[in-house]
Amino acid sequence: MSSISAPTGALDLTKLEPIFETYKKLARGSLIPVLQAAQEEYGYLPTTVLETIAERTSAPISQIYGVVTFYSQFRLLPRGRHVIRACQGTACHVRSSSMILETLKSSLGVTPGGTTTDQQFTLETVACLGACSLAPVMMVDNEAHGRLRPDKILEILDKYRRK
Questions:
Q1: b/e sequence 57-96, b meaning 16+ C-beta within 10 Å
Q2: pLDDT tens digit string along 45-95?
Q3: Handedness of CA 13, 117, 162, 74 (dihedral sign)
Q4: Looking at the structure, do residues 112 and 155 belong to the same domain, yes or no?
Q5: Which of 70, 100, 118 is the last residue of a domain?
Q6: Are 10 and 58 found together in one domain?
Q7: Nearest to 12 by CA among 44, 40, 48
Q8: How far apart are CA 3 and CA 82, in angstroms?
């Protein structure tokens, strides 16, 4: 299973102790809150953290991995400092969101779901951002950027690189 997580170096697994202490009296239903708390602590769920959770909860690692891969809230790889969500909904599609996505992919050197090597950006695609009047649109962190053109992408990315 070690191939599912990015190399982490030495993790401080003692950070899990308060989490186990908090949830030790809960019944079997505590796995998701434990995973949520661990992800909050580490930013994602490295393999060693999942293995430690399996040992401490007596849950099979396959069950833990099943939960983590079923729910989209859990991440097995670290995310970038800034998360870009590129809309691929109908309104954005008809207004050339595919060109925006291609520009993002080539500018960042990643495909959707990937994180840049400098850990600055994670690129995601979404079905709809609910900002159809701004199509094509993307979000960077919690900020919407609409009426995009490929030539605006580098300017927007540079703004976040400087932050």
A1: bebeeeebbeebeeeeebbbebebebebbbbbbebbeebe
A2: 999 999 999 998 888 999 999 999 999 899 998 999 999 999 999 999 999
A3: negative
A4: yes
A5: 70
A6: yes
A7: 48
A8: 24
Residue 139 region, left (φ>0) first, then alpha (ψ -120 to 50), else beta? beta
**Same-domain pairing of 61 and 106:** no
Q: Do residues 18 and 49 share a domain?
A: yes
Tokens of 52: 């430690």
The total number of structural domains in the chain stands at 2
pLDDT digits (tens, 9 = 90+) for 129-157: 999 999 999 999 999 999 999 999 999 99
Among 47, 70, 93, where does a domain finish?
70
Report the distance separating Cα 54 and Cα 32, nearest Å.
Answer: 12
